[in-house]
Design brief:
2 domains, 5-stranded mixed sheet, Udp-n-acetylmuramoylalanyl-d-glutamate--2,6- Diaminopimelate Ligase, Chain: A, domain 1, 6-stranded mixed sheet, alpha/beta
């Protein structure tokens, strides 16, 4: 039976966790341990009491999340924070968090998988931070209308802001929040962005700079990488795995 250390080491190496400088509170890697053995892998987008409860109920003892627990630490272990930790400890469920490495990975990353959903492949880095690309840019293969139609078939809610080219030459991808991506489009020579969410003021920017912006949901664009890593891990160590959805509409 594989150990917790085996799985953590594999995830760290496969995602190149140490190469990315993430937000100070991200704390990528093992956030909560278990008794050292793993029998079932789980994947979820967010750390939270409900996904933790559902993971434990499903028999998961190694849960991979994209958004971990420690964004605003230190915090006292009281109230909901205590309930989160207690649920994991009492359920013997380890928690492994991986944020930017699982956005930027060229095979398992959210952005690579977003492009692949559209039949595209990232050929250029996008949103390079400390030498590591978080997003990617792919050559477009279809019209703007066809791109929108495909996205609407994949995601339950798509906001399309279309002031750019009707036949874009390339598409940039930034899963989750795309607020830092919009200012970098012009320098990258791209007028079309697929992302999760944006602040309100970028609508005016899209009009003025003639951009196509497609918002498919922060949560919805970040379900891909945790599932890909969990599936690969399960195959590697011959373990079952399960995705823990939360129905987050945001």
């Amino acid at each position: 039976m594989p150990t917790l250390s085996d799985l953590v080491s594999y995830c760290d190496r496969r995602t190149r966790r140490a190469a990315y400088k993430d937000a100070p509170g991200a704390f990528n890697g093992l956030q909560v341990a278990n008794n050292g053995r793993v029998t079932k892998i789980g994947a979820a987008v967010d750390a939270g009491l409900v996904p933790f409860q559902e993971a434990v109920a499903a028999g998961v003892d190694f849960l991979i999340v994209h958004h971990g627990m420690y964004w605003d630490m230190p915090r006292p272990l009281t109230g909901p924070v205590y309930e989160r930790v207690a649920t994991l400890v009492q359920g013997n469920c380890a928690l492994y968090s991986n944020h930017l490495p699982l956005d930027g990975h060229p095979e398992l990353g959210n952005n690579a998988l977003l492009a692949r959903q559209l039949g595209l492949k990232g050929t250029r880095p996008f949103l390079v931070r400390d030498g590591e690309a978080i997003g990617c840019i792919a050559r477009a293969k279809s019209s703007r209308a066809a791109l929108r139609k495909k996205l609407e078939s994949l995601y339950p809610r798509v906001v399309a802001i279309e002031y750019g080219s009707a036949s874009p030459a390339a598409v940039a991808f930034c899963s989750g929040a795309g607020n830092s991506a919009v200012p970098e489009l012009a320098a990258a020579g791209v007028d079309t962005l697929v992302t999760g969410e944006l602040r309100e003021e970028w609508f005016n920017t899209a009009q003025e700079q003639r951009l196509n912006l497609y918002l498919c949901g922060h949560y919805a664009t970040e379900v891909h990488a945790v599932q890909a890593l969990a599936a690969e891990l399960a195959k590697k160590f011959k373990l079952p795995w399960e995705f823990i959805p939360t129905g987050n509409p945001l």
